[in-house]
Amino acid sequence: MKAFWERFKFHSLFIKIFIVMVISIIAVALSASWTTVRMSERLFMGTFSITNSKVISQIKANFESFHYSIVTATNNTQLSGTIKSFLSEKDSTSQAMLRTYYNMTTQMKRIQSNVDRYEVGIKIMGENGRSYATNTNNLLLTDSELNKQKLTQSTLAEPKRLMYHFYQENNQPTSQESVIVASKALMERTTGDIYGSLYITIQEGDFKSFYESFVSTGNDVAILNKEGQIVSSNRNELLGQQATDLLGYARKIEQEGLDYVNVDFRGKDLIVLADVLPSYDFYIVNLIDKQTALGQMVDTKMVALFCSAIVLVALIVVFLISRRLTKSLTLLSRQMSKITERNFHNYITVTGSFEFQELGHAYNYMLDELNDYVDKLVLTQKEQRNAELAALQHQINPHFLYNTLASVNFLVQQGSKDKAVQTIHALISMLQHALSNVSETISMAEELENLKSYVFINHVRYGERIRVNFFVSPDCTEARVPKLIIQPFIENAFFHAFNRKNEGYIHVLASQDAGMLILEVVDNGDGMENMSPERSLFGPESKRQLFNGIGIKNVHDRIILLYGKEYGITITSNINEGTAIKIRLPLITTQN
Amino acid sequence: MKKTFALLLMCMLILSACGANGGNKNTADTGNAGGNTEAAKEITIWAWDPAFNIAALEVAKAQYTAANPDVKINIVEYAQNDIIQKLNTGLNSGTTKGLPNIVLIEDYRSQGFLQSYKDSFYDLSNSIKGADFADYKSGPTSLDGKQYGIPFDSGVTGLYVRTDYLEQAGYKLSDLQDITWNDYIEIGKKVKDKTGKALITLDPNDLGLIRMMIQSAGSWYLTEDGKTPNIADNAALKEAFEVYKNLTDSNVANVHADWSQFVAALNNGDVASVPTGNWITPSITAAADQSGKWAVAPLPKLAGNDKSVHASNLGGSSWYVMNVDGKETAADFMAKTFGADTEMYQKLLTDIGVIGTFKAAASGEAYGQANEFFGGQKVVSDFAAWTEQIPSVNYGVHTYAIEDILIVEMQNYLNGKAIDKVLSDAQAQAESQIK
């Protein structure tokens, strides 16, 4: 779990980027497709309403030209004296009647030619009971039945108007055809007497042809009369129905000058366009089924499918790219997090994009520099240490010189000339060692010489009650050791180990063990209580050195500085038994 | 570099996908309207006169669909003039769209259609035999030895009279058995005096009366070749015109302008008689309250023409199968009903009053039966007897073209133009038009 969390931590950038990208891609895709669909819908509505208004005006023009023909026919009928006399005169002689009938039929043929373009029938009916129809198929009624019809009644009530009616011939099972009837009362202009009525009939099927070519699935046309009855429609099931709601929409469009209205008509979402046919007193209503019309235009399923496909592809691409981008970063951060391990030597592998390569290079370069500086620092410190040691080494204690020279003086006065010379030689040898370069190493043999000189001088001054023995393994004589490394311990033993005892010995041993040079300074003096090397040897109360500035503490520091922590000094001491000091050094035999 | 390319690719992909959304789905659904592959089992028939032709068709339809339930038969009623106009329009335009499978055509016109549009009609020689039908029908219904039409009703004429009106004027049916048109007018005058009813009703635009008169004398608007107008020197025609004028001058004629008014005049009892084809029987018998008041007398003959007989023909029509999809079904329908079914003819006669021209049917029982509506008169056998006397004439192809001229000239004549001038003018017009 923790490992997983660790992993997750290093991928958090990737995850964040990816999540952001996923959300934004989906948001963009959704909003883009929604906007597109909305826009195309709106555009579609706009263009559709424009084209359909044009269509409506075209339909209107068709209706108007039909109306014009009918008006012409009506006017011709009204102006015809022949027809007037046919419809108004009483029966007379056969010959006169025959003439009247003949002239009337000739006249009617002429009038019929006005409307020849349309499949219409003309019927005239006179107040004298005579009638004539050019097409016996429309208005299958006897004259007396027709007289009782509402359409005749309303025609006669308003004799000056040409009216259009809707009439369903439901009394004939073989022809349940609906017809549109244009009717007009035939009136004597001067007197205002009505002498007959004129009916121009057109079958609804033929009436339909004025607009039928403009309709399609989901794009229907209905003609309403002012009572809201559907007098004609390309949808036959609507025919004759009462559609007051449609009439309401049509009125609203007309009065408010709207382009179209969106309505819910019999459970369908429709766009309704409408116009008024003033000459007919009809409304022409165009019903567009939004679902059908838009379904043809915008395939929402297709859009959704496309969008999902794009989103999917984009997500895969984004996943791969951001994964690739952040992979180097993850690696980098992982490697960088290990900076503290291995003393700044964890160089990182340079991979990934240019930016990350640069970063890696810079990081590695920084590590280089850092290491460089650390090395320099260590070197400087070493040098500083050496300088310090040199300074200490060169501090030959004036008392030592004074005492030694005083001893020599005494020997000369005693006449022991040879001993005086030996002492002077030993002093010279010591000074030579002390004043030469402190950083140099010397062979164990030379160190031994030096120690012997020191011991000789001390014996001259203080007598020979403390004997010093040197046991150097022959294979160690050539081993290299730092200068003056043993002298401080012998000095310490001379001046501090025999305060209560009057005599004793000091053994200096040199041997090698497991590739290490072991030097031991062992005395049988007073020993130390509660021995701990830090306190006794390196403590602040460390006494002033008698020969030069290099003290025991310094020796320890020096060894560690020169050879590392595995080397150094250990001290064991027991009261009245003496002290043993063990110095471990690397076994180096060559000059370097 | 690779990454830049991938990015570019992605952009292109998205752009192209966006573009693809815009302009699809503009393929309009041009529906398969009018594709009538099942037409073979659905046939349309045009005819006129619901009381007669349509009624006969309904009987035939019922017979046929009982045996062939998968066939749908649409019977469409149009006025005869509309049928002629629609046929002409359809045939002229050269398309078969909108044409029916079967159409009823009057014998006067059939040759005009057959000769002009032979290929548009289906040769029925394999389905029926012309010899099975009345001989005078073969002229109008066949062409170049091929039988195109199924002869339907006979146009044999008679003088339908209201015996009640005649009796009021002092006449009996026996008084009408051998009369001339002049006698007929005299009777009419008396009837008018006594009853106030007109003798006859005339349509100024239909000279059927003239046609009956001249055919009874073996004459026609055209000479025997069927092409040359025969008007100016046609004695029968001249006499017929004179009779016509006499009818109007005597003030015994009523006037009508269309079929419904014609039938109404009969049914309302406005006229005392009507000389016309036997196909009017159903229309007359439709007025059941007038049962027993009607009788049929032989047609009067022309006094001044010794060839004239008491029999003539008016109208009569035949079925024609159009050469359109479904013609086999249509031909089968016709052959199995009007071309073979004698039982059906009995039914047509008893139920509707159709006198067919199918010879085998004439021996049937119904043909010899007395008709109660006509006072127990054996109307059908009378008509059958008269049928044999009908003088055969060649109607040619221009009957109605000439009649249109004569209708106008008749008005001129009635208005006082001299008869010889009238006829010679008509002859001149006919010659110039028919060429």
Describe the structure.
The complex is a heterodimer of chains A (592) and B (435). Chain A is α+β, with helices and mostly antiparallel strands. Among the domains of chain A are: 80-207, PAS domain (Beta-Lactamase), CATH 3.30.450; 342-393; 397-586, Histidine kinase-like ATPase, C-terminal domain (Heat Shock Protein 90). Chain A has helices at residues 2-10, 12-79, 81-88, 94-114, 143-148, 150-157, 204-208, 244-256, 290-297, 300-336, 354-394, 398-414, 417-435, 444-462, 487-496, 533-538, 552-563; strands spanning 120-126, 131-133, 163-168, 178-187, 194-203, 219-225, 230-233, 261-265, 268-277, 282-289, 441-443, 466-472, 480-482, 504-513, 516-523, 568-574, 578-586. In chain A, β6 and β7 (230-233) form a beta hairpin. Chain B has 2 domains: 43-154 and 314-363, 3-Layer(aba) Sandwich (D-Maltodextrin-Binding Protein, domain 2), CATH 3.40.190.10; 157-312 and 389-433, D-Maltodextrin-Binding Protein, domain 2 (3-Layer(aba) Sandwich). Chain B contains 16 helices and 12 strands. In chain B, α2 packs antiparallel against α13 and α8 packs across α9. The longest helix of chain B has 21 residues, at 2-22. In chain B, 47% of the residues are buried. Classes of the chains: A alpha+beta (592), B alpha/beta (435). Chain A: This is Histidine kinase.
